[in-house]
Amino acid sequence: MEFEIIFSILIPFIGTILGSALIFVIKKMSDGILRAFSGFAAGVMVAASIWSLIIPSFELVEENMGMLSFLPVVIGLWLGFGFLMLLDKVIPHQHPDSDEIEGPRSNLKKSTMTSLAVALHNLPEGIAVGVVLASSQVGNSTVTITMAIALAIGIAVQNFPEGAIVSVSMNSSGVSKNKSFGLGVLSGAVEPLGALITFVLIDLLNPALPYLLSFAAGAMLYVVVEELVPEMTKGKHSHIGTILFGVGFTLMLILEVLLG
């Protein structure tokens, strides 16, 4: 059991590391590849939000709340939306494909703000893994350790192209390969940290698990709508982002059925 917990916490970060390492192989990321990677990541995150977070949140309160079981889910979703929106407003960050600084103005370098932007959007994924892990350890038959593993693997799969996008984009803007790789890796370090903190606080968080599950789902869906969907549809019209969205969604669905 301890191995499964450690694996679930670390595997998403390993996905980021492997993706960031592509900087030593790929010189430039084409618009088509960016759209494909963004679409794939969006598909994985939407599927994970539904099957690993929202549905279990419903099931945890359904017996006691009946027709009102939607309340914790709706509240948690909006808290997740609001949390990510607040972070976008109060923390300065810059996206790989943009020269515009979002949030308060800052003297931080573009490379640092790019890494910070991705780290902010990786935080809910780490929280999601930690919440599902915590829920699987408190006797909830609705949520199992295999569900946490499936979620962690799905996030790791989408972190691979995400790590590549960050490191290759920074290298293309003039940052050295070694620094681009390091910043790409650091952008994913928040995930195991968020997962570990959430899991360690299991006893305190137990009463709020339905809210936390939907909170993580809301935060992940915010990232999909705010960042990934615009990236997968920008530029010359192409179906590649939409197709890869379907591939990512299907892959996560298969993982949920096989492992969940």
Question: Low-confidence runs (pLDDT<50, min 5 residues)?
Answer: none
Number of helices: 10
How large, in whole angstroms, is the Cα Rg?
A: 18 Å
Share of residues in strands? under 5%
Q: Please provide the ordered H/E string of secondary-structure elements.
A: HHHHHHHHHH
Mean pLDDT: 82
Let me know the largest β-sheet. Answer: none
Question: Brief overview, please?
Answer:
This protein is mainly α and 260 residues long. The chain contains ten helices and no strands.
Describe the model:
It is globular and about 55 Å long. Helix 2 runs antiparallel to helix 9 (209-233), helix 4 runs antiparallel to helix 5 (145-172) and helix 4 runs parallel beside helix 7 (190-200). Helices cover 78% and strands 0% of the residues. It has ten helices and no strands. The chain has helices at residues 2-20, 31-65, 70-90, 110-136, 145-172, 177-188, 190-200, 202-205, 209-233, 240-259. The chain has 260 residues and is mostly helical. The longest helix is centred in the first third of the chain and has 35 residues, at 31-65.
